[in-house]
# Entry
Amino acid sequence: MNYKNEITVSTTAVIGKKYPIYKSDFKIGDAEFLKKDGDLFEFDIHLSSANPTNYQYKFDVDSSTYELVSMRAIPK
# Structure
C-alpha cells in the first residue's frame, strides 16, 4: 500500500530503506521509504498478515538525530 503523511519535525529517512512497523511491541511488517517532498513522506507499506488500510501510522524518531527509526500501526 502506498502511504503518504506529513512529519512536521526535521525528520530524515533513507530512500529505499525498510523501516519496521510494530503493533503492541510485535513487528507486523515494514515500510519502504520512497521519497520526501517537503514535509510529506511517502512509503510502500507491507504487513505480514493484516490489511494496511485498517491502520493509521505513527512515526518513531530518534530525538538526538531526528532520524526515522520505526513506525507503529494503530487500528482505525
